[in-house]
Amino acid sequence: MMNIIEKELRKLDIEKLKNKKIMLMGRIEHVRQIMEWLRERNLCVEAILDNDKKKQGLFVDDVLISAPEQVLRPCRGDVCIIIYSPKYWEEMRNQLAGCGCPGKSIHILDKPDLEKNIDLVKEGCAIYRGIQKEYGRNVHVFLANCPLGDYYLLGLFFHQYLNEKQIKNYVIVGVSQGIEKLSAMLHINAAKSLTGEESNALIRAWMFLGEDEICLKPLTIWQGPFRFNACQTRQKNGLSFLDTFTKMIYSLKNPIPCYPKVSADKTSMEAIFKRNGLRRDKTVILAPFSNSLQPLPAAFWVELAEALKGKGYSVAVNTGEEREENFIRDSVTLRLEFADVMTAMELAGTVIGMRSGFFDITAHAKCRRIVLYPPAVQEPAAWNSTDIGFCSLKRMGLCGDAYEWEAEANQKLIGKILNIL
Q1: What is the model's pTM?
Q2: 277: three-class secondary structure by DSSP
Q3: Where in 259-413 does DSSP place strands (E)?
């Protein structure tokens, strides 16, 4: 099914774009999707604009991330800037205007208007009635539009919340890929996948009509169209990412995580290892992908893989989503279910990757972990907690023996990793 971004991109005049210097602004995962769509039509992106100093100077598919004012002053007439950001498009547009960009140079994807909002409310009501028909009129609907790692953390405390609120009839809905499979692992019996458009319509109906008409509880109030300043949570001393779920969402006084019991066919995984030449306790699984934090360049992972092979290790790459492709030559691609990937980690012995939800879901696998975070910003930032300070596995109580480092991609980091091994 065509998603919102593709629908909006189809409204652009491709012929006019051929004579423009195209720049993009928005979340990295959305930027990647727009870039791919444009490249399929032989259109190149010249720059990615981002105000996050941690991202500036890095590359996304060989395109440099820069501060808007660095690229746009002075703003040339042949520039076309494409924005997709349901929450911050107005701020972005105003900032670009301040850099001298005329309105005709700025294209906002999925810009809201009155007629569109009315249609969304109507559609959302129809979706809610459909959910009631399927699960009962008294159903409690929980909305979880989030990456799977976040959903796993929500699931650890979901049953405790249901018990405290004495909720019997529920359904969790969301747009996360794999939500139904992960729900089964967490013993969440009622889960339903929505498209992005369906989710937005349901949210719009809830916001317009109120919870008396739409019995819905958002579990991720910093995602999608919600106007919630997630940065404020990082102004609280001692608050971790896990606390945003247990304290802010569920308001649990004594949160007790309920970890799922994972069972997998070890014999089958041993056969996969043997078939692909992966050696037990002498394999390193790389997990280089991350949607929430800026990943290290692909060249670093290629260089690291060569160094690991030189030390006698087999190398495999975990690819959790369809759009994640193994870019490391002569390595084994692992695209496994959650239970199987934990078994693979224990057979391999070592996992190295960017901090992502992958490490939340697999926190209890018995193996050595090296988890990498982008370097801390030296300049004043919007919050007083670093990424590693806010969501490290140790800080969150998920895993006490992981090596967790803020690091830049260089030979020194590769040497540090080899010393651990």
Answers
A1: 0.78
A2: coil
A3: 283-287, 314-318, 332-334, 349-354, 368-373, 403-406
pLDDT in tens, 80-124: 999 998 778 888 999 998 888 888 889 999 887 888 889 989 999
Q: Report the C-alpha gap between 294 and 92 in whole angstroms.
A: 20
Q: Which tens digits make up the pLDDT trace of 185-208?
A: 899 999 999 988 898 899 999 999
| Tokens representing residue 264 in the block | 């997998």
Residue 60's Cβ-count burial label (10 Å; 0-12, 13-18, 19+) is buried
Question: Phi and psi for 128 in degrees, rounded to 5?
Answer: -65, -40
In single-letter form, the type of residue at position 357 comes to G
Question: Cα–Cα distance between 221 and 67 in angstroms, integer?
Answer: 27
> What 3-state DSSP class applies to 14?
helix
Q: 59-60 and 21-26 as β-strands: parallel, antiparallel, unpaired? A: unpaired
Tokens 């890929």 locate to: 177
The edge-to-edge listing of strands for the beta sheet with 140-143 is 191-193, 170-174, 140-143, 216-218
- Residue 280 makes CB contacts below 8 A (sequence gap 6+) with 270, 273, 347, 348, 349
Tell me: the pLDDT tens digits for 13-24? 888 888 899 999
In whole angstroms, how far apart are CA 231 and each of 85, 308, 377, 383? 17, 38, 15, 6
The bridge status of strand 59-60 relative to strand 63-66 is antiparallel
Six-digit token pair at 28?
Answer: 């990295």
